[in-house]
Amino acid sequence: LGALSGGADADTVAELERFGLAFGIAFQHADDVLDDDQPALRDQAMARLKELTAECDAIAAKHPNAKALAGFADWVSKRAARALTGDKSD
């Protein structure tokens, strides 16, 4: 939405829309791990989270002003990894 309202071209808007979707799903997987939801599916959730955050990183790498976006993806990935060790802190 920010790219659209900021006047970005259609390709950039589409890429950042995809970033938002991938990040949102990755965040939900991380939250499920943090909350210990579906322990039997934890490995699959972590694998999918890694795929989604890699996609976020690839999108952010295309845009020179997107370091903060890459930071968000890194944060959610590290948050889930810490939760697997029992560390539930943010």
Plain-language structure description:
The chain is mainly α and 90 residues long. 74% of the residues lie in helices and 0% in strands. The chain is built from four helices and no strands. The protein has helices at residues 2-5, 10-34, 42-61, 67-84. Helix 2 (10-34) runs antiparallel to helix 3 and helix 3 packs antiparallel against helix 4 (67-84). The relative contact order is 0.15.
Summarize the structure.
With 90 residues, the protein is mostly helical. The protein contains four helices and no strands.
**Share of helix, binned:** over 70%
Instruction: Give the radius of gyration.
Output: 14 Å
Helix-strand string: HHHH
Number of strands: 0
Low-confidence stretches: none
- On the 0 to 100 scale, the average pLDDT is 90
Structural class: mainly alpha
The 3D shape can be described as elongated
Distance between the termini: 26 Å
Q: Give the percentage of residues in beta strands.
A: under 5%
